[in-house]
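FIELD: query
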Amino acid sequence: MASLATTVNGLKLPNPFIVAAGPPSANANMIAKAFDEGWGAVVCKTVTLEASKIVSVTPRYARLQGRQSQEIYGWENIELISDRDIRVWLEEFRQLKDRYPQRVLIGSITEEYNQDRWIEIVERCQEAGVDALELNFSCPHGLTERNMGSALGQEPAIVEEVCGWVNGVAKVPVWAKMTPNVTEILAPGRAALRGGCAGLSAINTVLCVMGVNLDTLRPEPAVGGYSTPGGYSGAAIRPIALRMVMELARMMRGEFAGRTLSGIGGIESGDDAAQFLLLGADTVQVCTGIMRHGYGLVRMMCDELCGFMSRHHFNTIDDFKGYSLQFFTTYADLVRRQATARSEPCRDTVTRDDQWQGDEITEQSERLARD
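FIELD: result
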């Protein structure tokens, strides 16, 4: 029987599925619901020292849907971090740990570029009993106007400095949540690890404009007729997230072996999760999937992941974590491999099918060019 139990940075999780920081973890009642449904861990909605500065607007969401099926492929949000007073959060952390002493509660925190403020929020949250901390270097909207969120996470030198402040006082494992809104994610990832972080979380949402309403001519979501770029999430960003997780995992296997990686981005099934684990993630986080399908989604994902493991005779997550990384190479190497394969007298069915599909695409392109 496959086991989903895993240990990450000394934290024992019944399964690798974690509720990501966001609307599904916005208060103690919601976090308790997630624990009751069986999630392996929960990251609370991001906390800051001065919640009075956090002012939410409405509407905050927009959707990308198929023209025919109306299936939802992606979400945009301009949701900010928690606007609840930190004193309320600290009391709820204590209550949750009293009620669920064996479950893993991760405090998501963020602050301005100020050492004293980062140290204060770390010390107050860990005193309240959180099992780990996740540093929000990645919120792509709103906070950036105050030099917070991705405004910090896009600058490797600042990431390393802030992580150093945090890890200088942290007594629990610290993860850095990385922004995808960079040219390449490895520089800030390395910086966070050099700053002492036990692990990385990747990715947060992708900065986007969902679209323009062709009746009103206003971008969406519109607040009093105006909008701002927001964070894109859901199944549509999964390929981007998989690529960045793969890159981070390959980098971490060398100099930073032993550090951990939590994969995020469009995960809504056990099969989705398996792909992130195969590319080197230790755990996976879900936010938009819960907003669409509810907290009970974790049971289906656990069943599907167990099914995948049974089909391949994997007993534990460690049996296949990072297995697919070995199959990434350079384009030049693909050319060499293709030439070698074509010189062989026999080719397998998969290779022939791939060639046929390639030929068909080439023929279609040439036909379009002629027309």
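FIELD: remark
Residues 331-370 form one domain.
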